[in-house]
């Protein structure tokens, strides 16, 4: 797997990770979370990362998203080479190219849905008026047209995760990163959220990466990367329906 | 992002109110206490404001304008002979008892000014003529005296009325306005010679010598010359004022006690604002982490935090100063307690409050800078 990263605009790869290592702590508490990971994600796919607890899924996701510094290896995300990029350049990169969806939604409770969704645009320097207009449009796309002026706490869990998805999409990032997006939701709601994410992934030049423990949603994966003990063990390229059985 | 920063701040009602009231309290306590303190300092200079002269000559042991160690009458002529002195005149000042019509006594400050030059005369005469002081047994009283000495009379005391100072009759020929003084007693002006008649006889009766520099001399130069040649103490008006204030700093607990209260206001402000603001940041750390992950730079978050802290600072400062001014308006009408609000004071409080806010913000900012954006993925 140790091929050099090639120009991925031609090869259709959204993300290429080569031989990445990440160690937490020192001495006794030292944990090597990533032990030379190789990983690819393609444009237009919804890719799942699965594996036992503590195998390094969240760590890998954080590295790809540019929220965590890594030690060795190369990470290439839609043309951007994160290895050797300055801290402020990575911050900029995150703001422009990544959409985040968190397990706990992480919406700001004192702000309305429109305000929450407008945040990534505001971070990118878009004016308030334009940002809120766009936010309202995207909220309508995820089926929350009428709820823009509600606070998140007035919404159900599934609706809140939709708001979070709207926030992750509003600035039209190429890569959407989701850590356990459905684990706080019931089965039906989780399915609806995944359908939405699968549609998002289908858009040209997009990629959605989902870390999950939740076998109920395996069927939504285009491909599945299985991790174990800080490494990628297997990549499954199977018809969607098959996953729910092979990975339970 | 700034409107969201403010909205997050205002939406946390409890902390917002806590922050504003803490800073209001600090601003109010510091400004109001300092204003009362400056008011007292102002009063200590009352004599210097009510009897004007460029040069004050006193016994060498005298350090402040509310204290007298009498000098010999001949000292006046000694000062007159000093080069650099244009003229020098005697002045009498002491606290005496005035006997009212109903038989009660009220303390007054008896001032005797030179009858030829009238140097040291009250600056603001509202009724009567200064020259009438040259008539026998006459006095000019201030508005406070009108109020205090009217006790027991059918109508307020005025020109032509009499009262007694040490069993001697004093006839009022004029009314003047004076500034508040340290003792707070009314001023009763008369001529130097007449004052010596009103006051009980003692060996030395000359309280102050008021002098003026000769042409070509500054008051400072003349003062140096007077001290050198006569061995007396001498001050320019400004020096005497500073010396008076410093004397109060050295010899009374007043600055200490006010200083302690002002410091307390500062500490309370730092403690409440620092602690409340820091816990506001801590409670929002998760959201701030998410903002960081979504690409908000440390600098952007720093500006948001500064905006939040300076906003509560400005509001708290505004209310605090507003309350101080209300307090000032109320007490200035009553005349008690003393109160002076030079423009430097609100400015000083502003700087201190902004410092407190900057301090509170820095605590939060340091925490935010240390925050790893990756925490948003951790439960
Ligand atoms: N900030 C950290 N400090 C120290 N150790 C960490 C830190 N983050 C992760 N680790 C360790 O790194 C390893 C991988 O953690 P990671 O969170 O990536 O696993 P995961 O696959 O996401 O697990 P889970 O399925 O439980 O979320 C674990 O042993 C974890 O304890
Ligand atoms: Mg995890």
Distance between the termini of chain B: 26 Å
According to CATH, what is the class of the domain at 11-106 and 173-242 in chain A? Alpha Beta
The H/E string of chain A reads HEEEHEEHEHHHEHEEEH
Give the domain tally of chain B: 2
Q: Percent of residues of chain A in helical segments?
A: 25-40%
Measured between the Cα atoms of the first and last residue of chain A, the distance is 27 Å
The percentage helix of chain B is: 40-55%
What global shape of chain B is seen? elongated
Written description of the protein model:
The complex is a heterodimer of chains A (248) and B (379). Chain A is of the alpha/beta class and 248 residues long. Chain A has a domain of 166 residues: P-loop containing nucleotide triphosphate hydrolases (Rossmann fold, 3-Layer(aba) Sandwich), CATH 3.40.50. Helix content of chain A is 34%, strand content 26%. In chain A, the strands form 2 sheets. Chain A has a 6-stranded mixed beta sheet with strand order 6-7-8-3-9-10. In chain A, strands 2-1-4-5 form a 4-stranded antiparallel beta sheet. In chain A, a hairpin with a 2-residue loop joins strand 4 and strand 5. The radius of gyration of chain A is 18 Å and the shape is globular. The relative contact order of chain A is 0.18. The N terminus and C terminus of chain A are likely disordered. By secondary structure, chain B is of the alpha+beta class. The longest helix of chain B is centred in the last third of the chain and has 37 residues. The two termini of chain B are 26 Å apart. The model of chain B has no long low-confidence stretch (mean pLDDT 90). At the A-B interface, helix 2, helix 3 and helix 4 of A face helix 1 and helix 10 of B. Bound molecules: adenosine-5'-triphosphate and magnesium ion. The site of adenosine-5'-triphosphate has 12 residues of chain A, from strand 2 and helix 2.
Structural descriptors:
heterodimer, A: 248 residues, alpha/beta, Rossmann fold, six-stranded mixed sheet, four-stranded antiparallel sheet, 10 strands, 34% helix, 26% strand, globular, disordered N terminus, disordered C terminus, B: 379 residues, alpha+beta, six-stranded mixed β-barrel, 12 helices, binds adenosine-5'-triphosphate, binds magnesium ion
């Amino acid at each position: 797997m140790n091929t050099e990263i090639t120009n991925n605009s031609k090869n259709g790869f959204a993300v290429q990770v080569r031989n990445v290592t990440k160690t937490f702590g020192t001495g006794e508490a030292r944990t090597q979370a990533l032990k030379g990971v190789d990983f690819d994600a393609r444009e237009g796919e919804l890719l799942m990362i699965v594996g036992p607890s503590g195998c390094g899924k969240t760590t890998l996701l954080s590295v790809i998203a540019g929220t965590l510094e890594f030690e060795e290896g190369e990470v290439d995300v839609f043309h951007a080479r994160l290895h050797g990029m300055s801290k402020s350049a990575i911050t900029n990169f995150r703001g422009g190219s990544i959409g985040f969806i968190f397990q706990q939604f992480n919406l700001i409770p004192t702000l309305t849905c429109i305000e929450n969704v407008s945040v990534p645009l505001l971070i990118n320097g878009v004016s308030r008026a334009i940002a809120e207009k766009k936010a309202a449009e995207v909220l309508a796309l995820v089926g929350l047209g009428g709820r823009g002026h509600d606070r998140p706490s007035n919404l159900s869990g599934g609706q809140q995760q939709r708001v979070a998805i709207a926030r992750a999409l509003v600035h039209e990032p190429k890569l959407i990163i989701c850590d356990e997006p459905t684990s706080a939701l019931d089965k039906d709601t989780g399915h609806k959220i995944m359908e939405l994410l699968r549609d998002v992934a289908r858009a040209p030049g997009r990629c959605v990466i989902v870390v999950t423990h939740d076998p109920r949603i395996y069927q939504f994966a285009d491909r599945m990367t299985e991790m174990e003990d800080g490494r990628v063990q297997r990549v499954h390229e199977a018809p969607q329906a098959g996953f729910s059985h092979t990975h339970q | 992002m700034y409107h969201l920063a403010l909205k997050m701040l205002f939406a946390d009602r409890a902390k917002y109110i806590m922050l504003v009231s803490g800073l209001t309290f600090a601003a109010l306590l510091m400004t109001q206490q300092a204003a009362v303190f400056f008011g007292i300092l102002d009063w200590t200079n009352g004599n210097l404001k009510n009897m004007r002269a460029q040069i004050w000559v006193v016994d060498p042991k005298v350090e402040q304008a509310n204290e007298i160690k009498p000098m010999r009458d001949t000292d006046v002529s000694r000062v007159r002979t000093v080069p650099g002195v244009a003229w020098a005149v005697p002045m009498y000042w002491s606290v005496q008892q005035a006997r009212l019509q109903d038989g009660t006594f009220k303390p007054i400050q008896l001032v005797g000014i030179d009858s030829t030059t009238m140097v040291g005369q009250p600056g603001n005469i509202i009724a009567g003529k200064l020259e009438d002081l040259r008539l026998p047994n006459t006095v000019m009283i201030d508005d406070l005296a009108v109020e205090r000495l009217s006790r027991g009379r059918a109508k307020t005391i005025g020109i032509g009325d009499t009262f007694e100072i040490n069993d001697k009759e004093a006839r009022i020929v004029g009314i003047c306005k004076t500034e508040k003084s340290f003792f707070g007693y009314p001023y009763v002006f008369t001529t130097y010679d007449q004052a010596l008649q009103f006051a009980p006889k003692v060996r030395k009766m000359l309280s102050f010598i008021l002098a003026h520099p000769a042409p070509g001399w500054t008051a400072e130069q003349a003062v140096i010359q007077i001290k050198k040649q006569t061995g007396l103490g001498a001050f320019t008006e400004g020096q005497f004022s500073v010396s008076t204030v410093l004397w109060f700093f050295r010899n009374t607990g007043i600055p200490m006690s006010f200083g302690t209260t002002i410091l307390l206001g500062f500490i309370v402000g730092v403690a409440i604002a620092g602690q409340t603001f820091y816990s506001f940041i801590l409670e929002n750390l998760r959201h701030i982490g998410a903002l960081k992950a979504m690409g908000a730079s440390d600098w952007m978050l720093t500006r948001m935090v500064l905006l939040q802290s300076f906003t509560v600072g400005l509001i708290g400062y505004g209310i605090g100063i507003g309350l101080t001014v209300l307090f000032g308006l109320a007490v200035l009408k009553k005349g008690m307690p003393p109160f002076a609000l030079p423009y430097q004071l609100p400015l000083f409080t502003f700087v201190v409050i902004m410092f407190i806010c900057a301090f509170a913000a820095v605590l939060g900012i340091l925490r935010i800078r240390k925050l790893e954006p990756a925490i948003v993925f951790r439960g």
